[in-house]
Amino acid sequence: MKKLKLVWKILKSTNADKIVISFFIFILFMGFIFELVEPSINSYGDSLWYCFTVVSTIGFGDFYAVTTLGRLLTVLLSFYGIFVIALIPGIVVSFYMEFMKIKANESTATFLEKLEHLEDLSKEELAEISAKVREKKYKM
What we know:
By secondary structure, this protein is mostly helical. It has helices at residues 2-13, 17-37, 44-55, 68-116, 123-139. The chain has one domain (2-139): Helix Hairpins. The radius of gyration is 26 Å and the shape is rod-shaped. GO terms for molecular function: voltage-gated potassium channel activity.
């Protein structure tokens, strides 16, 4: 649950939450349309199930589009689903990379500030800086 809240917070801060919300509204709307145009789909629940199988690319085959309009809408729904599902991990990874870059820059700024004031540092602080420099040197 915590991870889901974090993902939602990231989506909200990047305004991708609007895309996700509009996607779910679109699915609900498409469910209504499929119930009207497809003869094999007899209820709104079945229509939503069909939308889920299309978006998730599972395609169980218990329902399928037979009308031209239904097939076109299925293609549209599947492309939109693939787009949104691919977009979310990209946004989360991008946000994480940006966070790590900021954290690294802050760490570098703190380190450089200490280097600028070497004469004010104690022997323990100098030893700590020396150890960090050796650690960074061998990691590269």
